[in-house]
Input
Amino acid sequence: MDKISETLGAMTSIEPKKAIVSVEDVNTKTEDFKKQASINLQHDYEAARANLKALINQSISVIPDLVSLVREAESPRMYESAASFFKMVADLNKDLLSTSADIGTKEKGTRNDPPERRDANEGKESNTTVFIGTSDELFKSLSKRRAEAATEVEFVVTSSNEETTTESTDA
Output
């Protein structure tokens, strides 16, 4: 124990513990995350679909009253507003169809990739290496690997008549 630790009656030079994470733990957490994301996507889809359907149904129920009101008023501004309302109802229907199409493509693959790219990526596995540790530990590990991977060693040989030759050998 150091002097400060003795004076305070506590350990001050506590070494931080290294977090050791196994590949199985990472894979398990990744799978859990993917499952939860899929569940959240399904809930969001159902909520959005229900909201769009409710808006469409309410809009459709208003249309007969709106048409009769516009006919009575015979105002160009009223016709313009009615046309805008009809466009909004049509857009709601398109949004409903788009939402259904989006959920179908998200379940199949990535939505933003073109079909030929999605087909090319099917069945391919991505291997990713994750290093957990300090930057010093990473540097030491990389330096060690670089030293082990050195395949050529260069020797400079000087002859008696001061000519320099270079020889290369495998380590």
Remarks:
- Helices lie at 3-8, 23-73, 76-108, 115-121, 135-149.
- Residues 156 and 166 are 5 Å apart (CA to CA).
